[in-house]
Design a protein that fits this description.
By secondary structure, the chain is α/β, with parallel strands linked by helices. It has four domains: 7-102, Beta Barrel (OB fold (Dihydrolipoamide Acetyltransferase, E2P)), CATH 2.40.50; 133-259, 3-Layer(aba) Sandwich (Rossmann fold), CATH 3.40.50; 263-343; 348-389, no CATH class. The protein has ten helices and 13 strands. The strands form three sheets. The chain has a five-stranded mixed β-barrel with strand order 1-2-3-5-4. Strand 12 (376-381) and strand 13 (384-389) form a beta hairpin. The longest helix has 40 residues, at 261-300.
Length: 391
């Protein structure tokens, strides 16, 4: 015969059983609000009911602090099932509540957006700038979709100097999210300068894989900047909010990821003409100064032989001065070139060094005190990036 339990022991036991069930930790419930109250604590207490039952609920003050409801409202609530020991009642602990009419997918989107936003995944301060002249572009998309060909066409037109590495993925349906994550992991091991994640337009159901938390976290941890180009201009996904740069379409994503080689050619031509004009002006000024000096000499030196010697000495001095000026400019250029090369991280990596970063925050791990056991790190070497866990 089992010993008798106290009330506290039994309610604690029931609570443990309920909270150990993963299914009961991520539930959506629809019903009508009744007995709504908001005491001085700021928590909101109410019941959800329908024709066949009643469920006691709580929405704590830190979750959706501005939200309020009235008896009779029909809502869609997200939360987990637990037991309130002090009353021995089954309780639905909500973290998100919306009017029923918004639809469950829209409500799920808002709930995930709120939660990931609170974690800082959308923080503008962590957005990385795109490289100005990318040599290697990675792409995650469907191998059979129109987005792939659209991006290829844009790259061929705008920036044919870049090579494209495609990581194919299913971008629609139940298997899309894990396939996208797997493609991103494969692409992260390639030596790329930036990545594009793209698919064409569709309904909210078609684009739902890009509202998946797993995809969002894979984007957040990606080792190089990411451009998202999902759907049409009016579509917005969680992936758009996490990516370093958001583009309204796949074609626009390719445009934002690369410079326009024709514009660069025009800029180089303008620079070339400017430099040639400046050189002509400098030569003309020097010639005018030489002519002025020669005229002064002709007036001041009557002897032809002495005048010839003076002209020869002047020309030699001018040549020596020009040579010294060229040597000085050449030395300044080589010095600046060396300083720039010294700042190139790729040159440092080529000598056997590595850059160690936290895989999630991309912050540099520059001390053993920051290398905590269990942390996931990204290690960049000369030919790419690999990931590891600190033991």
């Amino acid at each position: 015969m089992q010993p008798a339990l106290t009330v506290s022991q039994l309610t604690a036991f029931l609570r443990e059983i309920l909270e150990a069930n993963e299914y009961l930790w991520d539930l959506w419930v629809v019903g009508e609000i009744s007995n709504f109250s908001r005491p001085s604590s700021g928590h909101r207490y109410f019941s959800l009911k329908d024709a066949g039952g009643v469920l006691r609920c709580v929405l704590f003050r830190d979750d959706m602090p501005g939200a309020t409801f009235r008896d009779g409202d029909r809502v869609l609530a997200h939360g987990r099932v637990s037991v309130y020991p002090q009353r021995g009642e089954l309780q639905f602990v909500c973290d998100f509540v919306r009017p029923e009419g918004v639809g469950i997918l829209a409500a799920r989107y808002e709930e995930l957006k709120k939660r990931l936003g609170a974690e800082g995944l959308f923080d503008p301060a962590r957005k990385r700038p795109l490289p100005r002249f990318p040599q290697r572009v990675g792409l995650v998309t469907s191998p059979t979709g129109a987005a792939l060909q659209d991006i290829k066409n844009v790259l061929a037109r705008r920036w044919p100097l870049a090579t494209l590495t495609v990581a194919p993925a299913v971008v629609q349906g139940e298997q899309a999210a894990p396939r996208i994550v797997a493609a991103m992991r494969a692409l992260a091991a390639e030596p790329i300068d930036l990545a594009i994640v793209a698919r064409g337009g569709g309904s909210i159901e078609d684009l739902w894989a890009f509202n998946d938390e797993r995809v969002a976290r894979a984007l957040y941890a990606f080792p190089v900047p990411v451009v998202s180009g999902v759907g049409h201009e009016t579509d917005e996904t969680i992936a758009d909010l996490v990516a370093d740069v958001r583009a309204p379409t796949p074609s626009a994503a390719a445009e934002r990821a690369t410079p326009d080689i024709r514009e660069l050619a025009r800029a180089v031509n303008v620079l070339d003409r400017t430099m040639a004009s400046a050189a002509r002006s400098a030569v003309a000024e020097d010639a005018a100064r030489v002519n002025a000096a020669l005229m002064r000499m002709q007036r001041s030196i009557p002897d032809p032989a002495a005048k010839a010697r003076a002209v020869d000495a002047l020309l030699q001095a001018l040549a020596a001065g020009l040579e010294r000026r060229c040597a000085t400019d050449r030395a300044r250029f080589e010095s600046a070139k060396a300083r720039v090369a010294g700042l190139d991280p790729h040159a440092t990596l080529a000598r056997g060094f590595a850059i160690v970063q936290d895989a999630s925050t991309r912050k540099v791990v520059n001390s053993v005190r920051k290398a905590k056991p269990g942390h996931h790190i990204a290690v960049s070497v000369a030919d790419g990036t690999f990931f590891a866990d600190i033991g």
